[in-house]
């Protein structure tokens, strides 16, 4: 049995897995590393992790001493987490992550050591100002990528797209190594524009949902941004609302496409990723971001293959990836 911990900016998830890789118990908390950054200490995070761990072992009727191990990933390994672990430098495969694991006993959190999995950065050393675009970092998306690599056919180079408030693009080589990442704050930008700008009225202060998704307007926003600029396309959301279609869903989809156009363009132009036309694109994450990114990357036409991956019901990519590292470590 294994326990996995996934801590992000705003929440923490813990899962207890049996020997066959099936969830036995799970717990979550609305506490993440943002609380540490705000409070100036990690006491709330420590308490949240402790509570989630205790809940899982109690629910399953087991003891901590019966476990093969407890493995943690995500922002919990950052300077505002529970144990800071240096990033690995890309390219990095699963064995590099196993070697980079740092074990720490935190008696007020758990009676047995927790094994912390490192994140990844694109390069080592100082970064020159004119090469800033090549540099990127991730904590959490690396284990999601390892889960995808474990589930998908081997010997293929992939581009994984993991959409959210911060969308992460992760490139891999045919040997199963993570070769680079690129981060976009398109989700945060969309939220800011939809709630706190002149465009809020046009989009009804709301976001596109699965039910309100309208491909025609998404593509129109995307094409307008590509033909002019993001700033111009964003303002054109008001034009759509006042002169084309007064339904807020139409304007929201138009803005959605305009915001995401930059991400699609960045993937092909970026020096942070190792991709080509033959790279297989796999998108996994929240809706309607997944569907929108797939539709726009297919509209762009650069990549020959763009598809979606849906994890098994009730399982998260981060948990599956952390479990993959834990199993590899235990097998050594």
UniProtKB/TrEMBL annotation:
It comes from the Bacteria. InterPro entries: ATPase_NBD, DGOK, DGOK_C, DGOK_N. This is 2-dehydro-3-deoxygalactonokinase. It holds the Pfam family DGOK. SUPFAM superfamilies: Actin-like ATPase domain (SSF53067). Transmembrane segments: none annotated.
């Amino acid at each position: 049995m294994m326990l996995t911990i996934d801590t992000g900016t705003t929440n923490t998830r813990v899962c207890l897995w049996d020997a066959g890789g099936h969830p036995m118990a799970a717990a979550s908390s609305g506490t993440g590393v943002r609380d540490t950054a705000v409070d100036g200490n990690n006491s709330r995070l420590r308490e949240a992790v402790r509570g989630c761990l205790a809940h899982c072992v109690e629910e399953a009727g087991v003891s901590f001493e019966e476990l093969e191990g407890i493995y943690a990933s995500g922002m919990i390994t950052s300077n505002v987490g529970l144990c800071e672990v240096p990033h690995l430098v890309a390219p990095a495969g699963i064995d590099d992550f196993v070697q980079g694991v740092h074990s720490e006993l935190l008696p007020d959190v758990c009676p047995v050591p927790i094994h912390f999995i490192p994140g990844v950065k694109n390069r080592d050393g100082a970064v020159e100002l004119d090469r800033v675009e090549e540099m990127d970092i991730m904590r959490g998306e690396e284990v999601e990528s390892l889960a995808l690599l474990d589930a998908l056919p081997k010997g293929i180079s992939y581009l994984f797209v993991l959409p959210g408030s911060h969308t992460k693009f992760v490139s891999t080589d045919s040997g199963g190594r993570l070769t680079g990442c690129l981060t976009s704050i398109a989700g945060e930008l969309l939220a800011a524009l939809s709630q706190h700008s002149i465009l809020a009225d046009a989009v009804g202060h709301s976001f596109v949902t699965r039910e309100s998704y309208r491909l025609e307007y998404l593509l129109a926003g995307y094409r307008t941004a590509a033909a002019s600029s993001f700033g111009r396309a964003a303002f054109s959301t008001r034009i759509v609302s006042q002169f084309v279609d007064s339904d807020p869903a139409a304007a929201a989809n138009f803005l959605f496409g305009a915001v995401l156009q930059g991400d699609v363009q960045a993937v092909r132009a970026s020096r942070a990723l190792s991709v080509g036309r033959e790279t297989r694109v796999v998108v996994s994450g929240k809706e309607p971001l997944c569907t929108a990114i797939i539709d726009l990357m297919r509209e762009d036409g650069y990549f020959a293959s763009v598809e979606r991956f849906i994890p098994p019901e009730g399982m998260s990519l981060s948990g599956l990836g952390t479990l993959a590292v834990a199993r590899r470590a235990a097998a050594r």
